Amino acid sequence: MQNALDNNGYKDKYIIQTFGTSELGGKILAEGSNIEADLITMSSFYIDSAQEENKMFKDLDFETGTLDKYPSYYTPITAQEGAIIYNTEAVKENNLTIPTSIKDLAKTEYKDMISVTDINSSSTAWLLIQALINEYGEDGTRETLKKIYENAGAHIEESGSGPIKKVRAGEVALGFGLRHQAVRDKEEGLPIDFVDPSEGNFTLTESVAVIDKGEKSNPEAMKMAECVIKNGREELLKTYPIALYEGEKVDEKNKSGNPKLFSEALTVDLLKKHQNISEECK
């Protein structure tokens, strides 16, 4: 994003301030259009919830060319999918079977052998919980999630990249994490492979949105949003290789085998509901 802005006339004309997802989510819900920022990139479900509550974003005034339909007030900048990841050497050494589903991670053979993330600190965990609830319902999810957490033990991570780091190091044999990270590791020759679970590869997007401050709105913000999308996606695709816009192409290896969408619209309230389910299972 910085390269897109710096190489297209905006160098030294902006300040980037970073926050964790839940921290920035709290700010936009609490502050609305009084937030200091003129432009944000943020998890799309937070933007939807903030718009519903505060009506704080402008409709984008440029053609986006997205492959799917999105609300008028944001357009996606990245997308991330979940998958089961495993260390090929550790699986072999421990004589483990390779799981085909997230539910398989609840099997006793994986005791102390898996790493997952905590939904209270990482949205990566929501990809796992969405898949379970979508497939098995809330009661079935509770039953499975309790066993998964028991198997993970001390390996319930706060960061979305925590599981793959432990799988890379061989501290655990398997985990649930971001699919594109496992694809890249495998391509680089690390003993990493991945499984597209039978419950599905669920997706979370991050989007760009412009704050509506009425007469105090910064006219450059909309231009910068367009600049980031039109000039930043090519480089972003190297890290987040999921096509979102017309004309974008990704290698076959980056196309998940079982893409799915959750049956309900993703909102902050739904996230909180799923966080409560997760807490019950610990």
Write up this protein.
This protein is an alpha/beta fold. It folds into two domains: about 1-80 and about 205-270, D-Maltodextrin-Binding Protein, domain 2 (3-Layer(aba) Sandwich); about 80-200, Periplasmic binding protein-like II (D-Maltodextrin-Binding Protein, domain 2, 3-Layer(aba) Sandwich), CATH 3.40.190. It has helices spanning about 1-10, 20-30, 45-55, 90-95, 125-150, 160-170, 180-185, 220-240, 270-280; strands spanning about 40-45, 75-85, 115, 155, 175-180, 190-195, 200-210, 260. Strand 7 (about 200-210), helix 8 and strand 8 form a beta-alpha-beta unit. It is globular, with a radius of gyration of 20 Å. The two termini are about 40 Å apart. The mean pLDDT is about 95.
List its traits.
8 strands, 9 helices, D-Maltodextrin-Binding Protein, domain 2, 282 residues, alpha/beta
List the helices and strands and how they pair.
Layout: H1 2-10, H2 21-31, E1 39-43, H3 44-54, E2 75-87, H4 88-93, E3 114-117, H5 124-152, E4 156-157, H6 162-169, E5 174-178, H7 179-187, E6 192-195, E7 201-210, H8 219-239, E8 259-260, H9 268-280
Parallel strand pairs: 3-4, 3-5, 7-8
Antiparallel strand pairs: 1-7, 2-5, 2-6, 2-7
SSE topology string: HHEHEHEHEHEHEEHEH
The CATH architecture of the largest domain comes to 3-Layer(aba) Sandwich
Output the CATH topology of the largest domain.
D-Maltodextrin-Binding Protein, domain 2
Question: Strand pairing plus helix content: what structural class?
Answer: alpha/beta
- Which stretches of 5+ consecutive residues score pLDDT under 50? none
Gross morphology is globular
Distance between the amino and carboxyl termini: 38 Å
Q: Please give the count of helices.
A: 9
Q: What is the name of the CATH class of the largest domain?
A: Alpha Beta
Strand runs, count: 8
CATH homologous superfamily placement of the largest domain: Periplasmic binding protein-like II
Helix content: 40-55%
- Proportion of strand residues: 15-25%
- In total, the number of domains comes to 2
Give the rounded overall mean pLDDT.
95
What profile does the largest beta sheet have? 8 strands, mixed
Rg, Å, rounded: 20 Å
Keywords: Signal, Transport
GO cellular component, one term: outer membrane-bounded periplasmic space
Protein name: ABC-type thiamine transport system, periplasmic component
InterPro entries: SBP_1_CS
